[in-house]
Amino acid sequence: MTQPQHGTRTLESLGRVHFIGIGGVGMSAVARIMVARGIPVSGSDAKALPVMTDLEAAGARIAVGYGPDNLGDAQTVVAGSAIRPDNPELVAARDAGLPVLHRSEALAATMAEDTVVAVAGTHGKSTTTSMITVLLQGAGLDPSFAIGANVPALGVNAAHGSSGIFVAEADESDGSFLNYRPTIAVVTNVEPDHLDFYGTAEAVYASFDSFTALLPADGVLVACADDPGARALAERTLARGNTRVVLYGTAEDAAIRLHDAGPGRLGIATTAGTFGLDLQVPGRHNALNAAAAFAVALELGVAPETAAAALAHFSGASRRFEFKGEGRGVRVYDDYAHHPTEVRAALSAARAVAGEHKVHVLFQPHLFSRTREFAREFAEALNSADTALVLDIYPAREDPIPGVTSGLIAEHLGSGGSLVGPGGDAVQAVLAAAAAGDIVLTAGAGDVTAYGPLIVDALTGEAAGG
Questions:
Q1: How confident is the model over 165-193, as pLDDT tens digits?
Q2: How far apart are CA 66 and CA 14, in angstroms?
């Protein structure tokens, strides 16, 4: 494949780059790669974070707290999405006439000279991006990568590689994935979400059409045949005639086709033959993510036997059905699931691990707007658990919407579902429900992740006490 078309910005054209909010997972990822590629980087954040120490050790100039002097001699400024318009550094940058970039624009410039694999989709982006990266590393390639989650198997969420391949998670939540210029675009699924930004489902679909339109003539769209939204996108892309499409999944017409290959084992069928696949991560959604990674590897010239073997080394991304610990025979996992489809997939994985035992979920809705749009769908997904405990909504970037509470979900829950108070009330409710052999899952994009360790501590404390 030839190199993708480039935007007007190259990495060198940015000059000295200052990051406002450099401690964020996405911002630090871009900064880390820029430093490794020889770009002078400075940055600041409201408080000291471990990643800032790492960046300083790598050569970045780091400041804690915001102030105009932190800009120094910066020629380009990158502002995190959480930075307020009245941030003193952002105000100073605009007053000085400095270009202010979104994180995605900075990342696009960083990978402008690479062959870009951009992974998009309503769900599964971080896991699929991580799988592709681990696979390519295992196949002897050394990709650069930027992922929206920490990956234990990689040690970091971003790194500069030597192969000229760049694997990037492409976030559709605010339309910023349209800043990238991929050679290979992966779309795991397409569903209405982030309606606080898009407004309508049709606008979501249109943004994905625009994303695939960015592919060059010799590029390829790798899309999930099992997801109606991704399949429809693939069909529209083919009809437009600007690029090839490779389907993956269990469907008969999938070029990369998943099938059962015996107890606990999967197979992937291609035109080159059928290859066994051993995955450490449970769930049908992870099998589909693995098929996507396998398809990308073949596009990049990796032998199918090598690709299948390398996938066996993937142990999961942070907050993607992540094991937190065990006590009293109860295993506790944490998942970032914050859309009904993701909750359903995470609980399906939990059910597979639990076997004949029970599954208990502690769920925290994320955003008032998402809760309003999907309250019934959340309840239907949560009802697949034996116990579904629902916390108050995590507001994130939103102001409250009158009448929108977790009660909208609770009114559709079955007999095992209920609202639960924060802190100790939630922990005690989980302890009262869980028995030896059961699975506890904390789920949501907010601070519900902090409950996993608390539940483990309470379980181990009980076990030690009696």
A1: 999 999 887 778 899 999 999 999 998 76
A2: 22
Return the closest-CA partner of residue 411 out of 376, 361, 458, 463: 376
Q: What is the pLDDT of residues 354-373, one digit of tens each?
A: 889 999 999 999 999 889 99
Q: How many CA atoms lie within 13 A of 131 on its CB side?
A: 31
- State how beta strands 76-79 and 158-159 pair: unpaired
**Cα dist. 192→118, 170, 204, 210, 230 in Å?**
20, 16, 6, 16, 12
Angle ∠(144,22,316) on CA atoms, nearest 5:
45
**What is the reported pTM?**
0.70
3-state class of 298 per DSSP?
A: helix
Q: Is a pLDDT exceeding 70 seen at residue 316?
A: no
- Spatial CA neighbour of 420 closest among 462, 390, 440, 446: 390
Contact 443, 315 (CB under 8 A): no
Strand order across the 220-224 sheet: 158-159, 144-146, 165-169, 115-120, 184-187, 220-224, 244-249, 256-260, 266-270, 273-277
Phi and psi at 100, nearest 5°, equal: -115, 120
- Assess if CATH 3.40.1190.10 describes domain 111-311: yes
Cα–Cα distance for residue pair 218/204, rounded to 1 Å: 25
Q: Which CATH number fits domain 12-103: 3.90.660.10, 3.40.50.720, 3.90.1150.180, 3.50.50.60?
A: 3.40.50.720
User: Mean per-residue pLDDT for 2-25?
Assistant: 78
pLDDT in tens, 397-412: 788 999 999 999 999 9
Complete DSSP assignment for 208-222: HHHHHHTS-TT-EEE
Percent of the chain with pLDDT over 90: 65
353's enclosing H/E stretch is helix 340-354
> 322-465 sits in which CATH class?
alpha beta
The DSSP secondary structure of 159-205, one letter per residue, reads E--SSSEEEEE---TTSGGGG---SEEEE-------HHHH-SHHHHH
